[in-house]
Write the structure tokens for this entry.
Amino acid sequence: MTALIYGERNAERSTSDTFAHFVEVCGMLTAHDRNKVRETVSLEDALCKALGWYFPLMAKFHVSSVEEIIYRKFPYCCPYCRQTPHKERICKNVRGVRTVDHSALLTKHRENSQRRPVTLDEWQRMFGEIYPKNVGEARSTLGLFEELGELAEAIRVFERYPKYLAGEAADVFSYLMGIANEHALRIAQEAEIRFSLEAEFLKRYPGLCVQCGCHICVCPVVPEATVGRLAKELDLASSRPLFGADPADLDLHGRQVAATVLQKVGGYSAVATQFPLDRGETNKALVVLCLRLADSVATTNSVLADKLRSAAIEVGSAAMKSGSRERSQSVNDVIQSLRAVWPSIEVAIQQPDRPLATAIDRLIKVQDCRFGIVTALPKEFAAMRAMLDAPSEHPIAGDPNRYVVGTIPTRDGKGAHAVAVTMLTDKGNNGAAAAAAHILRSFPTIKDVLMVGIAGGVPSPDNVTRHVRLGDVVVSNKEGIFQYDSLKIEQDSIGVRSYATAPSALMIDAINMLEANRIAGQRPWDENTRRGDALEGSSRPGPDTDVLKDWLDIPKDVEHPHDATRSAGQPKIHFGKIGSSNVLLKDSKIRDTLRLHGVLAVEMEGSGIADGTWAGGCHYIVIRGICDYCDSGKSDLWQGYAAVVAAAYARALISEVPIATLDRRA
């Protein structure tokens, strides 16, 4: 994570410069042992900063797993005596010889593989058990600097002998943990306080740089505020996997960990007080917030709108250089002004009793939504919510619909789309059209609305390629929606008049790409389906429940045609026309008539979504999981699973849209 946050800055440094900085911050750890008072740096600060530079140093050598480097030498035991806690007498007999018993250590590694720590506190605890500390003991700092000398030598010869780095890097980490455990004992005795290294570290590195407020640090390389022997150990296993990490993989993993940490510590609202609002991305966000709020209230309160625009200019003009000690008072003044006028802003998020930072975060998140998703039933809403990362409720003042906003990462790993999900307050096409109007008004950056949920299937037992079965997914193609209750009634005839607009060209392009990838063997919706496993009724019913009947005269079963392209127990994806009306269809005769018009699925909201998005100058797509055959045998058995597979495909579809594509369209 810290390797990602400071990646751009470290890219400008050589490996030796990064190591020199690591040694520099390790030097701060001696202050306590020497009773030297540093006004601005506590031992906790120095220890966390040392770790904060240790991980980027490892990234300089493309280490694929720091945990593995450490645990391969310390597999929950001392590498010399292979005991926990270690036995000093045995270690004295082993240390100084050319090597240790690598075969025995490898055996320990295999035996203790399930005990490998996960959290930073668990790593600290492991080393505390291997090397117990006594109150008043302070030998780890001296040992750390001996190991730093050996690490320096390993770095110097890394290009020719990369394997030596593994052992020395593990030793350095063990001494950092030793310092942490000595400090924990000291403060427990002096102040009866429990010390958590993990809590202290996350406080200082909450998934972003607390100095500039950016996920990727933009502070100056030199901020204004800043003014031995080779390892005795041979390889435990092949060293190649330890240093073969792909930079793109490291970047993606770092972003995921940073996002998880930021969420764990409470999101932006929890860390907003730790970084200034007068610089970096937060300063830009504050300018955008003022301008968007001004636009929102311009027609009802022009005086307030002018004040907000003036505030945007003031904030932008007062931006400070990243890394500066000074803080802009004018930005604080603007914050106080926003507190005063917040109740007057009509588009403000409800629950004004929450902190301003939370309200700002909520409004910015709303303004970033790129996709809207409408569902009709609670089980559809629950399935779609399960497909979002970090979902949270976002009630909007003046909007009768309730919203959940979350994110869906793009497949290329270059970002994530903010997505708003709602559920109809009134069923049918009329309610869907109203929901589309509300979501587009409350989330003005949405340009594509997806109608996601269940539908009845229109089977074609005589045409295997178009034969729709229970649990399949039907996605509207460029023909869009067929509104079959829009009729032209004459004296001798009744005709269907369907004029639904074409679906989103952007989404059709993403659908085509998903289909191309499916042909190549990629089915991301199958993996997404597992996100709904905890939902009631989400399991796929048995194949014996997928019964198609001929209801003419005497009802009889109709055999499903053999389809070599189907995967057992998995949904087949169909693309075609979707029938829509305000009538719940349970008539196989009408269903079969719709088949003649090319309809693959039948539902009750798609036409309303098409009309509502057209009126709002936006686009739509409809995704339906098949739960019945629109006949007298209609039941609810397949509804839960059908809702989940439709939502799973929607997540895969949105993931397929690159961020850059939407930026160009905007």
Remarks:
- The longest strand covers residues 473-483.
